[in-house]
Write a structure and sequence with these properties.
The chain has helices at residues 10-19, 30-51, 58-65, 69-75, 79-103, 109-126, 129-139, 146-155, 157-170, 180-196, 198-208, 214-230, 237-250. With 260 residues, the protein is an all-alpha fold. α6 packs parallel to α10 (180-196) and α9 crosses α10 (180-196). The longest helix is centred in the middle third of the chain and has 25 residues, at 79-103. The protein is globular, with a radius of gyration of 27 Å.
Length: 260
């Protein structure tokens, strides 16, 4: 029986196979490797925000990223090395974006503070994992990142913000009857809390209408729906505009009391 035409002869097959570059076992292709590594970081950030760093296992991260535990260990030898990578490749770039207005201030301290507030909120909207990670691992007692993030905040953000607030008060740009430290805390809270608490206030807003009279429910549904849409992927514009309006109003100098 003659050999079918579509089947290569042994000599031809050997020659073709020898022309292929050898593939090193265990090493993923370059493009696939970048994608898998990014997926692992995304999965780790999501789980750290949900359950905390201490309660999250490497196996759970591999499952969330849809890779094998062996592949996770190829990129990250331990959970500590994974956390260090997240700090270097995700947290540090996030802080650099938010800190940019403070490092390159405008001539007006008040305008710089306003710009910081806006950019920080846009940065949080683009990185929703950040407020969840902060709540779980920085603000909570015993958080794994509390010491490091607190030290970084004390060395970078806090001094620059307080200096800008004090300068704005001296120049008469904002009211000077408020404690600069409390102003700084209020600004950070205005930027972070709406995003961190979005699941709670959205759920509360949805159940709010159940016990309200019909006319009040109709009056409140539109603004609450707009507020809910503000933190959706479509964009945080409504929430940012609202917060900047609060910033403008709360720092205005108190008007002289009218004589009666």
């Amino acid at each position: 029986m003659s050999t079918p035409r579509y089947r290569r002869r042994p000599a031809q097959a050997a020659k073709a196979d020898s022309a292929k570059p050898p593939r090193r076992p265990g090493r993923p292709a370059a493009t696939a490797g970048v994608d898998r590594r990014a997926r692992l970081l995304d999965a780790a950030l999501a789980l750290f925000g949900e359950a905390g760093i201490g309660a999250t296992t490497l196996r759970a991260i591999a499952q969330r990223a849809r890779v094998t535990p062996a592949l996770l260990h190829y990129y990250f030898a331990s959970k500590d090395s994974l956390v260090e990578t997240i700090l270097a490749e995700r947290v540090a770039p996030f802080l650099a974006v938010s800190m940019a207005p403070l490092r390159e201030p405008l001539p007006s301290p008040r305008a710089t503070l306003r710009r910081f507030l806006e950019i920080h909120m846009r940065n949080i909207a683009a990185n929703p994992w950040m407020p969840r990670l902060m709540l779980r691992e920085v603000l909570s007692e015993g958080g794994s990142l509390r010491g490091r993030m607190q030290a970084q905040f004390a060395l970078t953000v806090a001094p620059k913000m307080l200096a800008l607030i004090a300068s704005a008060q001296r120049k008469g740009e904002i009211r000077d009857d408020l404690n600069p430290l409390f102003i700084g805390v209020s600004l950070i809270s205005l930027a972070v809390f709406p995003f961190a608490a979005a699941p709670v206030w959205r759920e509360a807003g949805a159940s709010l209408f159940e016990d309200l009279p019909a006319h009040l429910a109709r009056a409140l549904r539109t603004p609450l729906a707009a507020a809910g849409a503000a933190t959706d992927s479509a964009g945080p514009e409504g929430l940012i505009e609202h917060t900047l309006t609060l910033f403008d109003d709360m720092l205005e100098k108190p008007r002289a009391k009218s004589k009666r």
